Amino acid sequence: MQNEANSVGGIVARLQVPELHSGHRYLIDFAKARHDRLAIILGETGGYPTDHDPLPFEMREEMVREMYPDDTIDIKPLEDDPISHERWSENLDALLRTQYGDSPITLYGGAQESFIAEYTTKTYPTVAVPLINPSSGTVIRNKLLRPRSADAREMLIYEHQHRKPKLYRTVDIAIISRNRGEVILIGKNKHAGLLSFLGGFAEVDGASDEADVLREKNEELPNVSAGQIVYLGSYPIDDPRYRKGKDRIRTTFFRTNYESGNLIPGDDADHAEWVPVEKLLDVLVPWHHILGETLQKHWWDR
């Protein structure tokens, strides 16, 4: 097939897969055969990697270059627009105009799932190409099995060595009785007799920190009823599980008044007991000392 003189074919895709499948290759070959140059525009979230978008632009560019080293193919990133398809379409037009000026451009996408429906400016003509393998990247990612090779382990180590530090968010709560001058703490066998406040990791689908901390309380002491929770602050936690790495934990700390119930531990707690507030720092795990000091400081706050 003869190329249209000085024309450009464009493909907009995410290509969040371990390798180009036959449908990707067919689409690239289809567009490449019809134009002097081919622009492959790879969508970017602008955020950290996720299960939906695990591969950064550089890795996807390498994947395409391994199969298509041609100097007639340009590969460019385009960040998603969080506001509207119109703004994203304008950004796509601006990228192509900057790269190719007034050259005639035709954009290609798959007939089943592609960017075409979201391309609202229609500045450049689009062609929906029936693909021989229309499997989406999501379907492919969901079918992946854990690779068992030195290369896979090396890749995982590299990823953790070079990614940005993560901040893990937790919630903790002190259940107190001012009349007794005591606090309920929980113990775990692995902590060699030391105790901690009730708490755990914030949930992705949690409605709020308050909801998360009440869930933790109900899991660890399901028979205890407590009053309204009071926010005491947020604090860095020197959790030994993350001490040697670059990731960190920050907790949101609450206080509530004990109302009733027996200290029968539920999930993730081996026992529970009342501890005098002045003895907190003697029995708490070291990484909860900052919370113990905070509670002592705000013991009489309303």
From TrEMBL:
Q: State the organism named in the record.
A: Candidatus Kaiserbacteria bacterium GW2011_GWA2_52_12
A Pfam family for this UniProt protein? NUDIX
Protein name, as recorded: NUDIX hydrolase
Answer yes or no on keyword Isomerase: no
Please verify whether the record's keywords include Cytoplasm: no
Q: Which Gene3D superfamilies match?
A: HUPs, Nucleoside Triphosphate Pyrophosphohydrolase
In this protein, which residues make up the domain named Nudix hydrolase? 166-299
Query: Any idea which GO molecular function terms this record carries?
Result: hydrolase activity
| PROSITE patterns reported for this sequence | NUDIX
Cite the entry's keywords alphabetically: Hydrolase
